[in-house]
Amino acid sequence: MSSGVPEHSRVRRILRGPRPEAVPALIARACTLVGVLDIAAGVFPRFRHSRMHRMAEVLPGSLGPFAAAMSLSVGILLLLLAHGLRRRKRRAWRSATALLPVGAVAEYVYRHSVIGVLIALALLLPLVLHRGQFDALPDPRSRWRALANFVLMGAGSLGLGLIIVSVHRHRMVGNPSLSARIEHVLYGMFGVEGPVDYTGNTSWTVAFSLGALGLLTAVTTVYLAFRPEHPAARLTEEDEVRLRALLEKHGGRDSLGHFALRRDKAVVFSPSGKAAVTYRVVSGVMLASGDPIGDVEAWPGAIERFMDEARAHSWTPAVMGCSETGGEVWTRETGLDALELGDEAVVDVADFSLSGRAMRNVRQMVKRIERAGYETRVRRVRDLGEGELERIRRAAEDWRGTDTERGFSMALGRIGDPTDGDCLIATAHRVDGVAPGASGRAGTGEGRAEAEAGPYGDLKAVLHFVPWGTDGVSLDLMRRDRSADPGMNELLIVAALRAAPKFGIERVSLNFAMFRSALARGEKIGAGPVLRAWRGLLVFLSRWFQIESLYKFNAKFQPRWEPRFVVYASSRDLPRIGLAAMQAEGFVNLPLPRFLRRPAPAPRPSSHGAAEHGMSATSRA
Q: What sequence ranges are listed for the domain Lysyl-tRNA synthetase N-terminal transmembrane region (predicted)?
């Protein structure tokens, strides 16, 4: 990295100093404790040893059940708020300061617990004293949270309700079965009397508590489902124009640069406007992808803006798939850590050849497919007609193979948009009526006879590449007809590499191989037991995530390997970052009910009415 990188951001960061995160975390733990105490007070009849029996005797008989339900409700809400307090959310602070006095009153009225009241007030005091630290802005709102709330709250309420029903065992009439107790909980959550009976006023206490659980689940779910959404961040047309201008000047630096133009990402620019970082927020994790876009000298300014945005919302910052240079700048400017994630396969066109023993398998496969009657065509997107582009879009959608689109850091998310005219498309076609060996000439249509056997004509496979500066391309997606002969991807990659000089392309970035070095070292003679065990785990996980298969596929083309890194704040954040990355890439996905789904955004005017189909690269994700 150039020694002339500005130091102003580091100086400002040192002067500003670290934010005191310990106090919100401590308060969040205390809030969890108070919530558990409130729940216990509302659930267990012998939770405390009361010394105020005489006062209890003069209280109205119906007040006890109401107070029990109130204590239970406040405890559950405090548990839900603890996570927001840990993240310094302002709204969580407001809710907690309102609920704690309510919980204290419920503790006193129902359990006559002076200690419970003191604990609640002891938590309220630091909340008020340190209110300035709870200044984080709210997250973008999503109706996903309504579904998650319904599932988690429903399951938790069912389990807690079963405890409430069972804990009063000495006052039960008879010995109801487990199924009868569960039925009683379900009925009680809807405010209906269930099959379990109790002596005395216990029936009222249980009924009010179960009703409170059901009401909490319903109210919170309805609120999350129908509150006005803060739409997820989107790349505006103005942002896209600025990013394209930066890529035109500096796009050759990073093979993932063009993927910054995904329209489901947000962007922050450096103060000078000469650099930018694109990101998406998933489950409280602010995920950037690849290196910053633009002039390296301006990267620190964009990174500082990124970190300021993460701090303002209390998001966990993370970077997926940055290069070694990008990782050095990120870690130096922010104090974050970096971990090697895998390697990117890059083929230099001038050095590529099918000759030699190392390429024998690829050479034989390509020749066999050519003899089977396939030909290839490699063209720029702008050179295809709208009818053919639409057919390619529909074919890629149909051949996707997964219920949801995948891709975030290494996928563009669309194909055939007029603004992406420099993208490269390689297609494979089944030619009928052609003698074996007469096909296989990339970019030609000689001897072609259209075979209209399927809905997409003779089209059998598609590869889509995005620009990597002016002299390179980066693989975006690979899709093929499952009924086509094996080896379509190898055929099209070879065709693209052969046609590359015609388009002025000197380097081609292929798939990303996660943990490639561990797989390579683990299969060598002399590998230690730890490395072999790690490789064995990766091979096992390959059943679901294509780890080993992508590495072996990439290695066929004898590429050079470029390491890619994940940048993170703390090792304890890695599981959360990994889950967020899997959600962003589409590997973890729960479909929303139709009434909770966000309407699809209307196509931009620049697309001339062409629908944008999310085309992700499962091979690169």
A: 21-222
Beta carbons of 188 and 194 less than 8 angstroms apart? yes
Q: Which strand (E) or helix (H) includes residue 511?
A: strand 507-514
- Whole-number Å distance between alpha carbons of 426 and 414: 16
Report residue 465 CA to chain centroid gap.
Answer: 23
In angstroms, rounded to a whole number, what is the distance separating the alpha carbons of residues 87 and 77? 16
Give the separation between CA 229 and CA 146, rounded to whole angstroms.
12
Q: What token pair was written down for 335?
A: 């104090």
- Are 439 and 374 contacting, i.e. CB atoms less than 8 angstroms apart? yes
Instruction: Indicate if 74 and 169 belong to the same structural domain.
Output: no
C-alpha dist (Å) from residue 446 to 375, 384, 440, 449, 489: 9, 18, 10, 9, 22
Q: Phi/psi at 44 (nearest 5 deg)?
A: -95, 125
Specify whether 165 is located in the same domain as 86: no
Distance CA(538)–CA(516), nearest Å, equals 10
At 487, list the tokens.
């080896």
| Spatial CA neighbour of 510 closest among 584, 547, 561, 585 | 561
78 in any annotated domain: yes
Here the tokens at position 175 are 């010995």
Helix (H/G/I), strand (E/B), else coil: 278: strand
Q: 46 lies in a domain?
A: yes
Sequence-distant (6+) residues with CB within 8 A of 530 are none
Backbone φ and ψ of 13, nearest 5°: -65, -40
Count CB-CB contacts under 10 A for residue 8: 11
Q: Taking the model in full, what pTM does it have?
A: 0.67
Instruction: Give the residue from 369, 468, 459 showing the smallest Cα distance to 424.
Output: 468
Per residue in 260-298, pLDDT (tens digit) is: 998 888 899 999 999 999 998 887 889 998 899 999 999
CA 605 and chain centroid, separation: 29
How confident is residue 98, by pLDDT bands cut at 50, 70 and 90?
confident
Candidates 36, 15, 22; CA nearest to 130 is 22
**What is the Cα–Cα distance from 17 to 23, expressed in whole angstroms?**
16
Segments forming the whole domain that contains residue 194: 142-226
Q: Residues 550-577: pLDDT tens digits?
A: 788 888 999 999 999 999 998 888 888 8
Alpha-carbon separation of residue 144 from 76, 279, 342, 485, 579 (angstroms): 21, 19, 31, 40, 15
Q: Are residues 30 and 79 in the same domain?
A: yes
Retrieve residue 218's tokens. Answer: 């319903």
Q: Residue type at 472?
A: G
CA distance 416 to 414: 7
Classify residue 98: in a domain, yes or no.
Answer: yes
